[in-house]
Amino acid sequence: MKKVNVPVDWVENSNPVQPGLYFVASSYKTGFGSYDYLNWDGEKWLKADSIRVVGWVSLGDFLGLIDAGWPMGDEPDKELEELSNKNKEKFKGDEGGFVEAE
Which domain of life is it from (predicted)? Predict the structure, then answer.
């Protein structure tokens, strides 16, 4: 796998507003650091006391920077594909929507 530089616009010196999962840059007492995913509960990071979050970005923003494709071995669901094709005219103009299969 080829290494790729992903330009993350880190949020520093403030905490998230919304609870959720975030991509973070963490610093340790040993002087080392790492990237990780951490939960913010609305008041604090759910982590060990020895970890200091030095930057974060919402997971949605982070994943928006990546175009990873999709695993080739994942076969499309034929029934869902047929249902989708059958309803294309019905949902014309709503390409951002989804089809719910029963």
Answer: Bacteria
